[in-house]
Design a protein that fits this description.
This protein is an alpha/beta fold and 495 residues long. It folds into two domains: 2-138 and 149-154, Leucine Aminopeptidase, subunit E, domain 1 (3-Layer(aba) Sandwich), CATH 3.40.220.10; 177-493, Aminopeptidase (3-Layer(aba) Sandwich), CATH 3.40.630. It has helices spanning 36-39, 41-47, 84-100, 118-132, 160-185, 193-207, 216-222, 225-231, 285-299, 345-356, 372-378, 390-403, 436-445, 480-493, and strands at 2-6, 18-22, 58-61, 71-75, 105-109, 150-154, 210-214, 239-245, 254-259, 261-265, 305-315, 327-329, 335-337, 363-368, 382-387, 406-409, 427-428, 453-457, 463-464, 474-475. Strand 10 (261-265), helix 9 (285-299) and strand 11 (305-315) form a beta-alpha-beta unit. Helix 5 (160-185) packs antiparallel against helix 9 (285-299), helix 8 packs antiparallel against helix 10 (345-356) and helix 9 (285-299) packs parallel to helix 14 (480-493). The radius of gyration is 24 Å and the shape is elongated. The relative contact order is 0.12. The mean pLDDT is 96. The structure holds ligand BES, manganese (II) ion (MN) and zinc ion. Zinc ion (ZN) is lined by residues 262, 265, 283, 344-345.
Length: 495
């Protein structure tokens, strides 16, 4: 999308369609934008017979003026309750309405809202338009190739520079979220571990990231018996992708992002039921998010050393597949008795989290579609957060509030450690049904003793069944904005 920020006087704007935010129950004269200058009073009053400016509601007006051909009123709900995320949701829905009209360009005047600064508002509106008009048509033979291609943000000359800065960040972040969505939406027969690794290498080449892809022989050399155990049952070769931003600047503080990359999770020999198994093409979302986050780090030029680790494999049930009762030796040296071949995510993460140690990180965050139990506990809107460091918890909660990507902390309860005790190995890979998300977290915690670490269980968040606001049915890219906001905060605090 071509995005421009300009400082034209509002009454001189030219537009195919202009988006104008409105609060409920405010007199026209008290609205943030003087909408009358584009539509005339009578037209707005007529539209407002049915349009009540409820959040995400829209109404289309055809003004009788030459400059602005259409005005789309965008409901923002109550002024005092309007947050950046309300704005993102409403303008996301509006941008989609514009795309559905078949228009390719839109103009968005921006204004000062509550405590938010122009930079944040511009970033938010750009994110809204890109995310709200997202489509995934790669495999449709008859899809229209028309989509929104031009966005113009309008502000006054005083706020031009910060708005431009916000717009640039918004575009980098939102396009990275779209990349993560694409990867989740991509069918498993296209996005094999090899293809995911190739995509990562391509993105790395485009953005200046350092990339390295380990094959199974190299993983064996490192002793990564846990990921290789999972990979045994698949015809597709496993890949371990390493991405690095600022690899050549060892003095910068190091942060590691790890993402679960199960390209397809059949459950292995303990095969999942047929219902909804297709959704398990999205079980690589943690890895896709990680690639998208590293893309952000590079393009935002964060003054940090950021490492992305993406262990990638399918979990399949063939004659070579790992079996219940097997014992795997992880890279850490700890041995694991397999209770369920469907608890594969924690196995591949165990080796990746052990590998993370070599970077002596300030903190490690992993993203993983890890447990169905997390969906039962928190539903489809909130990710589980498990963390061994209170400062890191607080920093992630702050980033969550900033981005509207919700998290809720669950405890790493020491009393539950014994649920992982095994008769034959150092631990079992499953601790039973009760507190399934917590025991999965405790399992990972055995591989993260050497650094501050947080685990985001994003099961159920990686895909959504309905289109609303800036989220589109299918892959959500959940977590990319959250972790990127956290990294930006870390960069800010080390300045
Ligand atoms: N990939 C699944 C978890 C999942 C569930 C992701 C729903 C997205 C939506 C994971 O590998 C899995 O199968 N977990 C098992 C663990 C159990 C065997 C301890 C589960 O949650 O049932
Ligand atoms: Mn599984
Ligand atoms: Zn899985």
């Amino acid at each position: 999308m071509k995005i421009q920020v300009i400082s034209t006087p509002m009454h001189m704007i030219q537009a195919e369609i202009l988006l104008a935010g409105m609060f409920t129950a405010e007199e026209l004269s008290a609205q943030p934008l003087n909408i009358e200058q584009w539509c005339g009073n009578a037209a707005i009053r007529t539209a407002c017979t049915d349009f009540k400016a409820k959040a995400c509601q829209t109404a289309l007006i055809y003004p009788q003026t030459a400059n602005v051909k259409r005005v789309l009123l965008v409901g923002l709900g109550e002024k005092d309750k309007c947050t950046l995320d309300t704005l993102r949701q409403a303008y996301g829905a509006a941008a989609r309405a514009v795309a559905e009209l078949g228009l390719t360009s839109l103009v968005v005047p921006i204004w000062q809202m509550r405590q938010y600064v122009p930079l944040e508002i511009a970033q938010t509106l750009v994110e809204a338009v890109i995310l709200g008009s997202y489509t995934f048509n790669e495999h449709k033979s008859k899809a229209s190739d028309q989509s929104l291609s031009d966005l113009e943000l309008v502000t006054d000359s005083q706020n031009l520079a910060p708005a431009q800065q916000g717009a640039i960040a918004g575009q980098i972040i939102a396009e990275s979220v779209c990349l993560a969505r694409d990867l989740t939406n991509q069918p498993g027969n296209y996005l094999t571990p090899t293809m995911l690794a190739e995509t990562a290498e391509k993105v790395a080449a485009e953005t200046g990231l350092r990339s390295e892809v380990l094959d199974e022989a190299q993983m064996a050399e490192l002793g990564m018996g846990a990921i290789l155990g999972v990979a045994q049952g698949s015809e597709e070769a496993a890949k371990f992708v390493i991405l690095e931003h600022n690899a050549d600047k060892p003095d910068l503080p190091t942060y590691v992002v790890v993402g679960k990359g199960i390209n397809f999770d059949s459950g292995g020999l303990q095969i999942k039921s047929a219902d909804g198994m297709g959704a398990m093409k999205g079980d690589m979302t943690g890895a896709g998010d990680t690639l998208a986050i590293l893309r952000c780090a590079a393009l935002l030029k964060l003054p940090l050393h950021v490492v992305g680790l993406m262990p990638c494999t399918e979990n399949m049930p063939d004659g070579h597949a790992y079996k219940p009762g097997d014992v795997l030796k992880s890279m850490s040296g700890q041995t694991i008795e397999i209770i369920s071949t469907d608890a594969e995510g924690r196995l591949i993460l165990a080796d990746a989290l052990t590998f993370a140690k070599r970077y002596q990180p300030k903190a490690v965050v992993d993203l993983a579609t890890l447990t169905g139990a997390c969906v039962i506990a928190l539903g489809n809107s909130i990710a589980g957060l498990l963390c061994n460091n209170t400062n890191l918890t607080a920093a992630l909660e702050k980033a969550s509030a900033e981005t509207g990507e919700k998290v809720w902390e669950l405890p790493l309860e020491p009393e539950y450690e014994e649920l992982l005790d095994s008769d034959v190995a150092d631990m079992m890979n499953v601790g039973g049904r009760p507190a399934g998300t917590i025991t999965a977290g405790l399992f990972l915690g055995r591989f993260t003793k050497d650094y501050p670490w947080a685990h985001l269980d994003i099961a159920g968040k990686e895909q959504t069944a309905k289109t609303a606001g800036y989220t589109i049915k299918g892959g959500t890219g959940y977590g990319v904005r959250l972790v990127t906001a956290w990294l930006r905060d870390m960069a800010e605090s080390t300045k």
